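Backbones bend. To wit:
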Amino acid sequence: MAHKHKPNIGIVGGVGSGKSAVARWLADEYHGLLIDADAVGHQVLLRDDVKARLRDVFGDEIFVDGEIARSRLAGHVFGDDPERVVARKRLESIVHPVMGEVFKRELKAGAEDPSVQMMIIDAAILLEAGWRDGCDVLAFVDVPREQRLQRVAESRGWSEDELAGREASQWPLDRKRELSDVVIDNSGTIEQAGQQLADYLFREDWVSSEPSHNIVSTS
């Protein structure tokens, strides 16, 4: 029996797993509204009310020319030492509710748009932020650590310590994998990984198997 509403699909994975590329491929091929949590986060940090609250917490040192410098903010919150854990929770208490409201508006717009077949939320911290309840399907994009390290070294210039620091700020990957409805192997090509997810959605009668080359994106 076909489902009665368009699915909200959450996509998670480790740093360097290529989850964003898989999300974009799916949206591009199958009438998807892509909601990029990182892009939404950028937009939220430009809001005057958010900047004011973050200035109260972190001070002027996270600002450059009146705007929040994400690299400076990251230095306060990424890592697993107690001070950074506390700082990260304070950041999240300010930013996540605002981001959640943006997601709700975008999901509502997608549900009402006849050209959209599914809504896709690409969010590294989807589970940590409590956004799982808004998803009908949660997909975990899986890639061996060695391959992820190679990718972030090439694309971002990160060391193994930098990768470990970012991962320490998120839930363990085994926990995310266990909580997901489907695990996608992205050790090959993006097309292969995207088709795995599409095949799962077809099997569950969420979407039409007819691909489209139209994309709707919030980023």
